[in-house]
Amino acid sequence: MQLWNGTQIPAGTPKPIIARLNAELNKALNTPDIREKLEKIDMDVEPQTPEETAAYIDAEIRKWAKLVREVGIKGER
Prior knowledge:
Layout: H1 15-29, H2 32-40, H3 50-71
């Protein structure tokens, strides 16, 4: 099973703030101490840019939407 973690901030956040938050989070994730602790609990550390994260989320939405349509899953009310 694969789990995915990410950080999200409100829509409309200025791009310089997004860039700074991303840079600082990736910097922290790349420190040996943090990386070692995460890998010790079997987490793969793969820092990404906001654009890479958005592309990943979009691809996942398309993949799972296709599966839902193909197998005819219907929502409950």
